[in-house]
Write a structure and sequence with these properties.
The protein has no helices and eleven strands. Strands 2, 4, 5, 6, 9, 10 and 11 form a seven-stranded mixed beta sheet that branches. β5 and β6 form a beta hairpin. It is globular, with a radius of gyration of 13 Å.
Length: about 120
């Protein structure tokens, strides 16, 4: 079992930045690829970014590429999402998720554990 708790969400103006964090508890954090997803009101939950469990390789949705950066600290069991140049369309609840995949999973069904989410609101 892995428990995930997100933090760092809030209200920011367009063009601003936020850094989300996800703290994991449980066993073998380094065995999991870690991803971020988001869900806007009335929309499906969508993939944002993922970081490989061991190589540090990353993969991003086209909509955030060049603006968001995912990173992890296996010693502290944390994963972060640095979000720069935020846009109103980035407004959503952001979820951290853990996957046993050895690759770079970008589909919801590939993830085994989910956090409760943190709200990010970007005003225009």
């Amino acid at each position: 079992q892995v428990q995930l708790v997100e933090s760092g969400g809030g209200l920011v103006q367009a063009g601003g930045s936020l850094r989300l964090s996800c703290a994991a508890s449980g066993r073998s954090f380094s065995n999991y690829a870690m991803g971020w997803f988001r869900q806007a009101p009335g929309k499906e939950r969508e993939f944002v970014a993922v970081i490989n469990r061991s190589t540090g390789s990353t993969y991003y949705a086209d909509s955030v590429k060049g603006r968001f950066t995912i990173s992890r600290d296996n010693a502290k069991n944390t994963v972060h999402l640095q979000m720069n140049s935020l846009k109103p369309e980035d407004t959503a609840v952001y979820y951290c998720a853990a996957s046993l995949s050895t690759a770079l999973p970008n589909e919801k069904y590939q993830y085994n554990y989910w956090g409760q989410g943190t709200q990010v609101t970007v005003s225009s």
